[in-house]
Design a protein that fits this description.
six-stranded mixed sheet, Rossmann fold, four-stranded antiparallel sheet, alpha/beta
Length: 257
Protein backbone atom coordinates (compact mmCIF):
# COMPACT_ATOMS: atom_id res chain seq x y z
CA UNK A 1 0.00 0.00 0.00
CA UNK A 2 1.33 3.45 -0.91
CA UNK A 3 1.62 5.85 2.02
CA UNK A 4 0.08 9.30 1.59
CA UNK A 5 1.74 10.70 4.72
CA UNK A 6 4.13 13.44 3.65
CA UNK A 7 6.69 14.43 6.25
CA UNK A 8 6.97 18.15 7.06
CA UNK A 9 7.21 19.68 3.68
CA UNK A 10 10.18 21.83 4.75
CA UNK A 11 11.87 19.25 7.01
CA UNK A 12 11.48 21.65 9.93
CA UNK A 13 10.31 18.82 12.16
CA UNK A 14 12.45 16.36 14.07
CA UNK A 15 9.47 14.22 15.09
CA UNK A 16 6.18 13.68 13.26
CA UNK A 17 3.34 11.24 13.77
CA UNK A 18 0.05 10.77 11.99
CA UNK A 19 -2.88 9.03 13.68
CA UNK A 20 -0.53 7.09 15.96
CA UNK A 21 -2.37 4.31 17.77
CA UNK A 22 -1.43 1.62 20.29
CA UNK A 23 -4.10 -0.76 21.55
CA UNK A 24 -3.76 -3.84 23.73
CA UNK A 25 -6.00 -6.86 24.36
CA UNK A 26 -7.61 -6.75 20.91
CA UNK A 27 -8.44 -3.07 21.24
CA UNK A 28 -9.93 -3.22 24.71
CA UNK A 29 -7.11 -1.11 26.17
CA UNK A 30 -6.42 2.05 24.19
CA UNK A 31 -3.09 3.34 25.47
CA UNK A 32 -2.58 5.80 22.60
CA UNK A 33 -5.53 6.68 20.47
CA UNK A 34 -4.68 8.66 17.33
CA UNK A 35 -1.95 11.19 18.06
CA UNK A 36 -0.88 13.70 15.42
CA UNK A 37 2.35 15.25 16.61
CA UNK A 38 4.91 17.64 15.17
CA UNK A 39 7.99 18.55 17.17
CA UNK A 40 10.21 21.20 15.61
CA UNK A 41 13.94 20.81 15.30
CA UNK A 42 15.74 22.54 18.15
CA UNK A 43 12.88 22.79 20.64
CA UNK A 44 11.91 21.29 23.98
CA UNK A 45 8.48 19.71 23.74
CA UNK A 46 6.87 18.43 26.94
CA UNK A 47 4.23 15.71 27.07
CA UNK A 48 2.29 16.49 30.23
CA UNK A 49 -0.36 14.27 31.74
CA UNK A 50 -1.41 12.03 34.61
CA UNK A 51 0.25 8.64 35.04
CA UNK A 52 -1.22 6.12 32.61
CA UNK A 53 -2.35 8.65 30.01
CA UNK A 54 -0.12 7.24 27.25
CA UNK A 55 3.06 9.31 27.51
CA UNK A 56 5.47 6.40 27.99
CA UNK A 57 3.74 4.30 25.33
CA UNK A 58 4.22 7.16 22.87
CA UNK A 59 7.91 7.47 23.77
CA UNK A 60 8.35 3.70 23.39
CA UNK A 61 6.85 3.79 19.91
CA UNK A 62 8.95 6.77 18.84
CA UNK A 63 12.10 5.07 20.09
CA UNK A 64 11.30 1.92 18.12
CA UNK A 65 11.01 -0.36 21.15
CA UNK A 66 7.24 -0.73 20.68
CA UNK A 67 5.46 -1.32 17.37
CA UNK A 68 2.30 0.78 16.92
CA UNK A 69 -1.07 -0.80 16.21
CA UNK A 70 -1.50 1.67 13.37
CA UNK A 71 -0.41 5.10 12.23
CA UNK A 72 2.87 6.50 11.01
CA UNK A 73 5.99 8.01 12.55
CA UNK A 74 9.05 9.78 11.23
CA UNK A 75 12.15 10.79 13.19
CA UNK A 76 14.44 13.23 11.39
CA UNK A 77 12.52 12.42 8.22
CA UNK A 78 13.11 8.65 8.54
CA UNK A 79 10.30 6.10 8.97
CA UNK A 80 10.06 4.44 12.37
CA UNK A 81 10.03 1.48 13.09
CA UNK A 82 10.84 0.46 9.50
CA UNK A 83 14.36 1.88 9.86
CA UNK A 84 14.81 1.33 13.58
CA UNK A 85 18.49 0.33 13.32
CA UNK A 86 19.43 3.42 11.34
CA UNK A 87 17.43 5.64 13.67
CA UNK A 88 19.25 4.32 16.74
CA UNK A 89 22.06 6.69 15.78
CA UNK A 90 19.66 9.65 15.61
CA UNK A 91 17.90 9.04 18.92
CA UNK A 92 19.10 9.18 22.51
CA UNK A 93 16.77 7.62 25.09
CA UNK A 94 16.61 8.06 28.85
CA UNK A 95 13.77 5.73 29.90
CA UNK A 96 11.67 6.09 33.03
CA UNK A 97 13.04 2.82 34.37
CA UNK A 98 16.83 2.87 34.50
CA UNK A 99 18.33 0.87 31.62
CA UNK A 100 21.67 0.50 33.37
CA UNK A 101 23.85 -2.44 34.37
CA UNK A 102 23.85 -2.30 38.15
CA UNK A 103 26.92 -4.53 38.53
CA UNK A 104 29.07 -2.19 36.42
CA UNK A 105 30.53 1.14 37.47
CA UNK A 106 29.34 4.48 36.17
CA UNK A 107 32.16 4.75 33.64
CA UNK A 108 31.89 1.08 32.64
CA UNK A 109 28.23 1.62 31.74
CA UNK A 110 29.14 4.61 29.61
CA UNK A 111 31.94 2.74 27.82
CA UNK A 112 29.67 -0.25 27.21
CA UNK A 113 26.90 1.83 25.60
CA UNK A 114 29.47 3.79 23.58
CA UNK A 115 30.74 0.55 22.07
CA UNK A 116 27.21 -0.41 21.06
CA UNK A 117 27.18 2.69 18.87
CA UNK A 118 30.47 1.74 17.24
CA UNK A 119 32.43 4.65 18.64
CA UNK A 120 36.22 4.54 18.41
CA UNK A 121 38.44 4.30 21.49
CA UNK A 122 39.43 7.96 21.17
CA UNK A 123 35.81 9.03 20.76
CA UNK A 124 34.77 6.98 23.78
CA UNK A 125 37.49 8.38 26.02
CA UNK A 126 36.81 11.98 25.00
CA UNK A 127 33.02 11.76 25.20
CA UNK A 128 32.86 9.80 28.46
CA UNK A 129 35.22 12.24 30.20
CA UNK A 130 33.26 15.19 28.83
CA UNK A 131 29.91 13.88 30.06
CA UNK A 132 31.28 12.81 33.44
CA UNK A 133 32.32 16.42 33.91
CA UNK A 134 29.17 18.05 32.54
CA UNK A 135 26.80 15.91 34.61
CA UNK A 136 28.93 16.05 37.75
CA UNK A 137 29.61 12.31 37.74
CA UNK A 138 33.39 12.44 37.91
CA UNK A 139 33.54 11.52 41.60
CA UNK A 140 31.21 8.56 40.97
CA UNK A 141 32.89 7.16 37.86
CA UNK A 142 34.29 4.11 39.70
CA UNK A 143 31.21 3.47 41.83
CA UNK A 144 29.01 0.45 41.11
CA UNK A 145 25.64 1.66 39.78
CA UNK A 146 23.78 -0.34 42.42
CA UNK A 147 25.35 1.94 45.04
CA UNK A 148 24.38 5.21 43.35
CA UNK A 149 21.56 7.42 44.58
CA UNK A 150 18.45 7.86 42.45
CA UNK A 151 19.62 11.29 41.34
CA UNK A 152 23.01 9.95 40.28
CA UNK A 153 21.38 7.11 38.35
CA UNK A 154 19.21 9.65 36.59
CA UNK A 155 22.30 11.67 35.64
CA UNK A 156 23.98 8.54 34.33
CA UNK A 157 20.92 7.56 32.33
CA UNK A 158 20.92 10.97 30.63
CA UNK A 159 24.68 10.74 30.04
CA UNK A 160 24.25 7.38 28.30
CA UNK A 161 21.56 8.89 26.06
CA UNK A 162 24.01 11.59 24.95
CA UNK A 163 27.09 9.47 24.27
CA UNK A 164 26.65 9.17 20.49
CA UNK A 165 25.62 12.84 20.14
CA UNK A 166 22.14 12.20 18.66
CA UNK A 167 20.04 15.12 17.36
CA UNK A 168 16.82 13.81 18.99
CA UNK A 169 16.49 13.09 22.71
CA UNK A 170 13.58 11.21 24.28
CA UNK A 171 13.46 11.70 28.05
CA UNK A 172 10.71 9.78 29.85
CA UNK A 173 10.09 11.30 33.31
CA UNK A 174 13.70 12.50 33.33
CA UNK A 175 13.29 14.43 36.57
CA UNK A 176 11.15 11.97 38.52
CA UNK A 177 12.40 11.30 42.03
CA UNK A 178 15.02 14.05 42.06
CA UNK A 179 15.21 16.99 44.43
CA UNK A 180 14.28 20.54 43.32
CA UNK A 181 17.92 21.64 43.05
CA UNK A 182 18.85 18.78 40.74
CA UNK A 183 15.65 19.29 38.74
CA UNK A 184 16.62 22.92 38.14
CA UNK A 185 20.10 21.78 37.10
CA UNK A 186 18.62 19.30 34.61
CA UNK A 187 16.41 21.92 33.04
CA UNK A 188 19.30 24.36 32.70
CA UNK A 189 21.20 21.59 30.91
CA UNK A 190 18.22 20.69 28.70
CA UNK A 191 17.99 24.31 27.55
CA UNK A 192 21.72 24.29 26.82
CA UNK A 193 21.26 21.17 24.68
CA UNK A 194 18.38 22.83 22.86
CA UNK A 195 20.49 25.91 22.18
CA UNK A 196 23.09 23.60 20.66
CA UNK A 197 20.45 22.35 18.22
CA UNK A 198 19.14 19.25 19.99
CA UNK A 199 15.44 18.39 19.89
CA UNK A 200 14.07 17.16 23.22
CA UNK A 201 10.78 15.39 23.82
CA UNK A 202 10.28 15.00 27.55
CA UNK A 203 7.38 13.48 29.48
CA UNK A 204 6.24 14.49 32.93
CA UNK A 205 3.24 14.27 35.23
CA UNK A 206 4.49 17.30 37.18
CA UNK A 207 2.66 20.32 35.83
CA UNK A 208 5.22 22.99 36.69
CA UNK A 209 7.67 21.22 34.35
CA UNK A 210 5.53 22.47 31.47
CA UNK A 211 6.43 26.08 32.17
CA UNK A 212 10.04 25.29 31.29
CA UNK A 213 9.33 23.78 27.85
CA UNK A 214 9.05 25.63 24.56
CA UNK A 215 5.81 23.86 23.68
CA UNK A 216 3.47 21.55 25.55
CA UNK A 217 1.18 18.70 24.63
CA UNK A 218 -1.46 17.91 27.23
CA UNK A 219 -2.47 14.22 27.19
CA UNK A 220 -5.49 12.47 28.57
CA UNK A 221 -6.63 8.87 27.98
CA UNK A 222 -4.20 8.40 25.10
CA UNK A 223 -5.32 11.56 23.31
CA UNK A 224 -3.52 14.85 22.76
CA UNK A 225 -6.18 17.18 24.09
CA UNK A 226 -4.37 20.52 23.83
CA UNK A 227 -1.12 21.92 22.51
CA UNK A 228 0.80 25.19 22.40
CA UNK A 229 3.42 27.30 24.13
CA UNK A 230 2.94 27.82 27.87
CA UNK A 231 1.94 31.44 27.33
CA UNK A 232 -0.42 30.66 24.44
CA UNK A 233 -2.28 28.14 26.57
CA UNK A 234 -2.48 30.40 29.63
CA UNK A 235 -3.78 33.25 27.49
CA UNK A 236 -6.33 30.98 25.78
CA UNK A 237 -7.78 29.68 29.05
CA UNK A 238 -7.21 32.90 31.00
CA UNK A 239 -5.38 31.20 33.88
CA UNK A 240 -2.01 31.63 35.56
CA UNK A 241 -0.60 28.09 35.45
CA UNK A 242 -0.55 25.04 33.19
CA UNK A 243 -1.82 22.94 36.11
CA UNK A 244 -5.03 24.98 36.16
CA UNK A 245 -5.53 24.25 32.46
CA UNK A 246 -4.96 20.55 32.90
CA UNK A 247 -7.36 20.33 35.84
CA UNK A 248 -9.93 22.26 33.80
CA UNK A 249 -9.61 19.88 30.85
CA UNK A 250 -9.26 16.69 32.88
CA UNK A 251 -12.08 17.09 35.35
CA UNK A 252 -11.88 14.65 38.25
CA UNK A 253 -9.41 12.30 36.56
CA UNK A 254 -6.25 14.20 37.48
CA UNK A 255 -4.69 14.04 40.91
CA UNK A 256 -1.04 15.13 41.23
CA UNK A 257 0.45 13.54 44.34
Amino acid sequence: MISVFVIGESMDYAIETKNLVKHYNKGQVRAVNGIDLKVKKGEIYAFIGANGCGKTTTIDMLSGTLVPTSGEMKIWGIDQPQHRKKLSHYIGIAPQEYALYTDLTTSENMVFFSKLYGMSKNQIKETVNELLDILNLEEKKDVIVEELSGGMKRRLSIACALLHKPPVLLFDEATVGVDPVLRAYFWDYFRKLRDEGKTILITSHVMDEAEKADRIGLMRDGILIEEGTPQELKDKYKVGTIEEIFILLSGDDYIDI
